[in-house]
Design goal:
This protein is an alpha+beta fold. The radius of gyration is 21 Å and the shape is globular. The longest helix is centred in the middle third of the chain and has 19 residues. The chain has three domains: 99 residues, Rossmann fold (3-Layer(aba) Sandwich); 70 residues, ATP-grasp fold, A domain (Dna Ligase, domain 1, 2-Layer Sandwich); 236 residues, ATP-grasp fold, B domain (D-amino Acid Aminotransferase, Chain A, domain 1). It contains 15 helices and 20 strands.
Length: 446
């Protein structure tokens, strides 16, 4: 096992990783920017190192500063967490070249899945179903017109180096394609420094379904079932649940089996998530995230598996501690992302938290890094907390979510909690009758 782990992240995920390290008896190093010196995980870690100014580019994305902090504190492994450098092939490679262990997959797999076109081609060869679209990047508008005509409108333009909904635009007709093409390229360039695009057939009413996998270096691959992440705005997830009401047992078994076989053929090691669009009983591969997901918690509570613990053990060269036959899905779980955003406009809401109370009780889990009088900085992601509820049935899960969200108090800043309170009382949400476009279409009425 590792002597000491440096956590190359911040916020709730850094606290999550730190707690598992403590459970494993592993000392930790917290890195932080100047403004983050009072973060919860910084106070609880064995050691902490300030790595730069407030901007992410000068701190949490500063590879040389992070590697220097690891050397200074004699850490022998780095956990990248979520976001920032967690899917950086260069960072993973440099960590290894400096004699440290990157707690994640091999750099080649990060690079392979980081390029959406390469990922799509790779998955197709491994038997994963993919959606129709361009074979590679779309060089210019003329190519875009030809491809869109061949696959039929509507089409979706996507950043080849993208993720998180950035650089994605829909064109419903030829007349809309030019504007969507230019906007997508500009957004891709601004977000990823790469304006390469590809085109896919746009599905009108799909669900967003993802499969959580864990694989070790001995060829063992296990899946933890699916998560439904269809309630989202601008391709940003707001609520996640497991299992999905939309996926039948047969469909679940079929896609999970295909995914397990693909991961085994790929030789992938670590945790990862396959994301699909699901419509009319068919799955279509979108991307594979080669890291921990924000929503990993719902899979943990319905399976009883500590995904972070397995991730660390696998990186240390151990085998997965359970077999596929051991996995039993128990009940239903839902996760609500509490962001420091206006619940209607989604404008960021940095500032001081004046009053704070988290819900508790049987089947309620809250992952967070904030506390009373904590000042939310304007420099980073707006996620404050994740409220996760678990019950025997989905209807009981929703009832539990209602009182848990009612008990939640975050005063001093605007949050998405009010939106979640409305969503869990909505008939469509209660019945599971929604798709990835549902929230956008119903925001005004909510």
């Amino acid at each position: 096992m590792f002597r000491k782990i440096l956590i190359a992240n911040r916020g709730e995920i850094a606290v999550r990783i730190l707690r598992t390290c403590k459970e494993l008896g592993i000392p930790t190093v917290a890195i932080h920017s100047l403004v983050d010196e009072n973060l919860m995980h910084v106070k609880f870690a064995t050691e902490s190192v300030c790595i730069g100014p407030n901007s992410a580019a000068e701190s949490y994305l500063n590879v040389s500063a992070i590697l220097s902090a690891a050397e200074l504190t004699a850490a022998d492994a780095i956990h990248p967490g979520i976001g920032f450098l967690s899917e950086s092939e260069r960072f993973a490679r440099l960590v290894a070249e400096n004699g440290l262990k990157f707690i994640g997959p091999e750099p080649k797999h990060i690079a392979m899945m980081g390029d959406k076109i390469t990922a799509k081609k790779t998955m197709s060869t491994l038997g994963i179903p993919v959606i129709s679209g361009s074979d590679g990047t779309v060089n210019d508008l003329t190519d875009a017109y030809e491809i869109a005509k061949a696959i039929g409108y509507p089409v979706l333009l996507k950043a080849a180096a993208g993720g998180g909904g950035k650089g994605m635009k829909v064109a419903n007709s030829q007349s809309e394609l030019e504007g969507a093409f230019k906007l997508a390229k500009a957004e891709a360039k601004a977000s990823f420094g790469n304006d390469s695009l590809y085109i896919e057939k746009y599905l009108a009413h799909p669900r967003h379904i993802e499969i959580q996998i864990i694989a070790d270096s001995y060829g063992n691959v296990v899946h933890l079932g699916e998560r439904d992440c269809s309630i989202q705005r601008s391709h940003q997830k707001l609520i996640e649940e497991a299992p999905s009401l939309a996926v039948s047992a047969d469909a679940r078994n079929r896609i999970c089996d295909v995914v397990r076989k693909a991961v085994k053929k790929l030789g992938y090691v670590g945790v990862g998530t396959f994301e699909f669009l699901y419509e009319n009983g068919e799955f279509f591969f979108m991307e594979m995230n080669t890291r921990l997901q924000v929503e990993h918690c719902v899979s943990e509570v319905v399976t009883g598996i500590d995904i972070v613990k397995e991730q660390i053990r696998i990186a240390a060269g151990e085998k997965i501690s359970f077999k596929q036959a051991d996995i039993k899905i128990s009940g239903y779980a839902m996760e609500f992302r509490i962001n420091a955003e206006h619940p209607e406009t989604f404008a960021p809401s940095p500032g001081r938290i004046e009053e704070l109370h988290f819900p508790g009780g049987n089947g309620v889990r809250v992952d967070s890094h904030v506390y009373r009088n904590y000042v939310i900085p304007p420099y980073y992601d707006s996620l404050l907390a994740k409220v996760i509820v678990h019950a025997a049935t989905r209807s009981e899960c929703i009832m539990k979510a209602r009182w848990a969200l009612d008990e939640l108090v975050v005063d001093g800043v605007s949050t998405t909690a009010d939106l979640h309170r409305k969503l869990v009382c909505n008939a469509d949400v209660i019945n599971g009758d929604y798709d990835v476009n549902w929230l956008e279409s119903n925001l005004r009425s909510l």
